[in-house]
Amino acid sequence: MKTYKSASIRNIALAGHGGSGKTTLAEALIFKSGGSDRFGKVADGNTITDYDPEEIKRKISLNTSLAYAEWKNTKINIVDTPGQFDFIGGMYEGVRAAETVIITVPAKDGVQVGAIKTYKEAAKQGKARVFVVTKTDEENADFTKTLEGLKSRFGGSVCELTDRAALSELIAETDESLMEKFFNGEEFSDEEFSKGLCNGLIQGAITPVVSVSALSGDGVEALLDLIVNVFPSPCATDGEKSGDTQIKYDEKSPLSAYVFKTLADPFVGKLSFVKIITGSLAAKTEPTNARTGEVERFGKILALKGKKQDEPSEAFAGDIIAITKLDATTGDTLCDASKIVSFERSQFPVPCFFQAVAAKGKGDEAKISNALVRIIEEDPTLSYVNNTETRQRVLGGLGDQHLDVAVNKMKTKFGVEVELSPPIIAYRETIRKKVTNIEGKHKKQSGGAGQFGVVVMEFEPHTEDGLVFEERVFGGSVPKQFFPAVEKGLKESVEHGVLAGYPVVRLKATLVDGKYHPVDSKEIAFVQAARLAFKEGVRAASPCLLEPILSMKILVGDENTGDVMGVVNKRRGSVLGTNPTGDGMTEITAEMPQAETSDFALVILQMTKGLGSYTMQFARYQELPQNLEAEVIANAPKVKHEA
Q1: Between β-strands 418-421 and 507-515, what pairing exists: parallel, antiparallel or unpaired?
Q2: Taking the CB of residue 3, how many other CB atoms lie within 10 A of it?
Q3: Which site from 39, 129, 187, 226 is most exposed, i.e. has the minimal number of CB atoms within 10 Å?
Q4: b/e sequence 202-227, b meaning 16+ C-beta within 10 Å
């Protein structure tokens, strides 16, 4: 196939709310440019960019996919991204790879949360933004109302592409010579208009709005012309950042490229989506991975059109290609050994919804870890932790649908069937009062030498999380050589408390007295005596359960702040403060028991219509209210069984 240099390449990401027409627009661009001989439909499951079996079944985009169109000697790389919030990581990938982000907005529905999130991320990454109002031929479609909504939400940079007078004023502000010409009442030439509009896009000063009906084809050809004539090529931008340096797109410099997406393909193995920043990449190239310092060897270079694969002989700076069998992971930089550079890694939303993963069949247990690693390599918004305390594999994502799709991929791609369940909460136990003169006596006689050891202990609450052991033995009632045995018995005992079998923390134990036998006293006897004293002493010291408390930062729209704070309070949480972050958003700082957060991600998503998000991390352990202890203790046998 034909190869293209940077000036003849346009990289666009299609992003926006779920169901806003991204995939259909991609289909229209490819079909209109002659890149396919049929117009696929999402409802029929035959579109170019939604080819995964799960996507066809659910009739939504789940993955970032690549395609390209060729129009007027220009290659248009199309990155089609998911719109559902559970799969928003794909939007971050697409925005990173593109110079221009096309944000689809349905004429019937107007500005939706997905458009707002995409606009913010594109602006944050410094990418050009263009609104495409879609589905203009549907019943109740209202382009004018949608345009006014866009202007109201996103400000003065928003302008209809056909409004040449308003655009001319915005274009004049991008360049002093054009400003002078504008104030003198002179009209811009077509070349000046296109160049000024392109500069306005790059600067973020102009956000054009165009109207397209992908199904009928209205406006598709005009959009292709706009992409070729106005959208910035890679070499027209500032390039990519490596440390404090901006590296411009340039095919004459040594190779550098960024891996922005990884796919776990069961047939070809790992498939890496790569954007070339400088130089060129051919089949015999052996780049260095800047992260590992190792030379990378790969299989093929592919130009993807959905699942269709072409094999270009070479790819140049600015182009987006796929590489098979690359060891690199998402976020890695590939470069020439003579000039090592490392591009900034993309930042993705962190998981906030967690479920335990267990194999359905015994034979699949050993395969789970490998399948999870491959799935997470494909999706950076997933996480996986093997919790050694609860002995559970815990999968984290952005919502229930996200994890459901991950589980189905494990089955279809790697043949591993698993089931999800709420994770076990790692409670702790402690004591609330001091007790003294607690005796532990171990005596065993079995014909020969026996076992004998007696300890007298004090137990009291302590501030340190671990066990604090001290001794105040006078007169040699317990010889010093047995002190380590007493401590060993206590350390073994605190692993399982007396209430529900959870580890015991914040405990100070003091050995104050005891007895020994010159013949029968052995280390094992004092280990056992300490264990007996521990059980009796902790039971007498008013034991209680401690629950994990999470520190949370919750970002919501100003209008949702009060409702979300109410939910936090109802879930035994505490609001610590609020901080307006601008653009109609507020950050709520709060703390909440882990037991109350299992479905919090789903609640926030529903309450804020997808605009809200949050992060959380462990803060501390806090005493569980007594009215909740019985339920936790009642579930303890299940905990013990699974642990």
Answers
A1: unpaired
A2: 14
A3: 187
A4: beeebbbbbbbbbbeeebbeebbebb
Q: Is the distance from CB of 269 to CB of 325 less than 8 angstroms?
A: yes
What is 108-166 written as a DSSP string? TT-S-HHHHHHHHHHHHTT-EEEEEEE-TTSTT--HHHHHHHHHHHH-TTEEETT-HHH
pTM: 0.90
Low-confidence ranges of the chain (pLDDT < 70): 266-268, 446-448, 637-643
Are the C-beta atoms of 22 and 81 separated by less than 8 Å?
A: yes
Question: Position of tokens 């000063």?
Answer: 205
**pLDDT for the residue numbered 583:** 86
> Is the alpha carbon torsion for 61, 65, 69, 73 positive or negative?
positive
Amino acid at 454: V
pLDDT at 266: 65
How does strand 320-324 pair with strand 613-623? unpaired
User: What's the CA gap between 30 and 64, in Å, rounded?
Assistant: 17
Using alpha carbons, list the distances in angstroms from residue 178 to 46, 170, 419, 466: 47, 10, 63, 71
Q: Which residue has the tokens 């993309």?
A: 346
Torsion (CA) 242, 246, 250, 256 in degrees, nearest 10: 0
Phi, psi of 184 (to 5 degrees): -85, 0
Residue type, 509: A
Give the H/E segment covering residue 555.
strand 543-557
The β-bridge partners of 323 are 272, 301
- Which pLDDT belongs to residue 444? 86
Residues 6+ apart with CB under 8 A from 434: 458, 459, 460, 461, 541
Cα torsion 332, 380, 361, 640 to 10°: value is 110
CA distance 523 to 455: 12
For 184, other C-beta atoms within 10 Å of its C-beta total 7
Characterize the bridge pairing of strands 353-359 and 392-397.
antiparallel
- What is the reported pLDDT for 641? 39
Each residue's pLDDT tens digit, 232-278: 999 999 999 999 999 999 999 999 999 999 998 766 678 999 999 99
Residue 251: count other Cβ atoms within 10 Å of its Cβ: 19
Rounded alpha-carbon distances, angstroms, from residue 124 to 117, 202, 235: 11, 13, 20
Is residue 150 within 8 Å of residue 136, measured between CB atoms?
no
- The one-character DSSP state at 389 is T
Q: What angle do CA 21, 22, 27 make, to 5 degrees?
A: 95
Q: How far apart are CA 575 and CA 553, in angstroms?
A: 10
* Tokens representing residue 407 in the block: 């589980």
Residue 366 pLDDT: 77
- Burial zone of 493 (CB within 10 Å; 0-12 exposed, 13-18 middle, 19+ buried): buried
| R_g of the chain computed on alpha carbons | 32
The SS3 of residue 104 is strand
pLDDT at position 448 is: 67
Contact 216, 224 (CB under 8 A): no
Query: Which CB contacts under 8 angstroms, 24+ apart, belong to 381-384?
Result: 381/87, 381/88, 381/89, 381/348, 381/349, 381/350, 381/351, 382/351, 382/406, 383/350, 383/351
Determine what percent of the chain falls in helix, strand and coil, rounding each to the nearest 5: 30, 30, 35
- Round to whole Å and give the CA distance between 95 and 35: 23
